[in-house]
What we know:
Low-confidence stretches: none
Organism: Streptococcus uberis (strain ATCC BAA-854 / 0140J)
Oligomer: single chain
Order of helices and strands: HH
Shape: elongated
Radius of gyration: 28 Å
Distance between the termini: 50 Å
Number of strands: 0
Transmembrane segments: 12-32
Mean pLDDT: 81
Structural class: mainly alpha
Protein name: Phage membrane protein
Keywords: Membrane, Transmembrane, Transmembrane helix
Largest sheet: none
Amino acid sequence: MQELNLTTDQLLILFPFLILLLLITLSTHSYIEIDLPDIEQRTNKEINPNYGAYIQAQSKYHN
């Protein structure tokens, strides 16, 4: 660990502390709940079946 310039004793103290901190962070549960409204899925039956081909053809002109 040359970047931190820590001694062996400092590393032996730091790593268990970081592991403990990680375990505490992962074990806590989030108590915040977001209630989203139910949204109806709308399907449009009137879409032209050739619309995808039209989009694909337009992209060829701009490339």
